[in-house]
Amino acid sequence: MLLSLLFSLVLSNAEAKGPAKAIKVADGTQALCQNATDAFTHRRGAHTMQVEAPVIKGDWIFFQVNVEFLACKEQQDSWNFVKVAPYASLGLQIANDEITINTRNIFITLSTKGERITSALLTAESQTIAVGLSDVLSLQEMESLNKGESVGAEIQLHLEKDLQYASKSGLNSEERATYGAFGRQFMLKR
């Protein structure tokens, strides 16, 4: 059973040049794509994320994480988010300079109670991430789970990208972009 954490919610908005779109991104905020200003705001891209119900195997919890990457682009006099590959280069025009934004690495980080559990390099849009049960549950919760009882737990997920900016004017830089975190509550039972 797929328990959607977030939906790739596409909403119609009032537009400047055609039907503008908004998406609800993984951290619960809305990303708008109505004009060149929005394209600049989302120059690092936007994404939606879903997490399937976790699976317990032995002392491990496996999370199936599905991520869709989007870029704000103008096409035929209309601004819209379009799906792009996770490591796609994104272009940006500022004044008379063209900048290419290359994604070098993408990490999905899982944490609980403010403590980082793991950070996994994203290699595909759909990826399984494993964490130890003891990293998520207290000793008391582990005992309850081992007795066959249902135990509630929560994790937080967020995405980080290592980006490289290359401009035609020769101004180059690097950045680690961190996207907002969101929580995922679930019940576990052996």
Please tag this protein with its features.
58% strand; mainly beta; 190 residues; 9% helix; Immunoglobulin-like; 6-stranded antiparallel β-sheet; disordered N terminus
Provide a descriptive summary of the structure in words.
This protein has a single domain (10-188), classed as Sandwich (Immunoglobulin-like). The protein is built from 3 helices and 14 strands. The chain has helices at 36-41, 133-136, 139-146; strands at residues 10-13, 20-24, 30-33, 46-51, 55-57, 60-75, 78-84, 90-94, 97-112, 115-121, 126-132, 151-167, 172-178, 182-188. The strands form 3 sheets. Strands 8, 9, 10, 12, 13 and 14 form a 6-stranded antiparallel beta sheet that branches. Strands 4, 5, 6, 7 and 11 form a 5-stranded antiparallel beta sheet that branches. The chain has a 3-stranded antiparallel beta sheet with strand order 1-2-3. Mean pLDDT is 83; it is low at 1-20.
The counted number of beta strands is 14
CATH superfamily: Immunoglobulins
Shape: elongated
* Structural class estimated from helices and strands: mainly beta
> What's the end-to-end separation, in Å?
16 Å
| Beta-strand fraction estimate | over 45%
Helix percent band: under 10%
Sketch the major β-sheet. Answer: 6 strands, antiparallel
Instruction: Compute the average pLDDT.
Output: 83
Number of domains: 1
Second-tier CATH architecture: Sandwich
Poorly predicted spans: 1-20
- How many helical stretches? 3
Order of helices and strands: EEEHEEEEEEEEHHEEE
Top-tier CATH class:
Mainly Beta
Over all CA atoms, what is the radius of gyration?
19 Å
State the CATH topology: Immunoglobulin-like
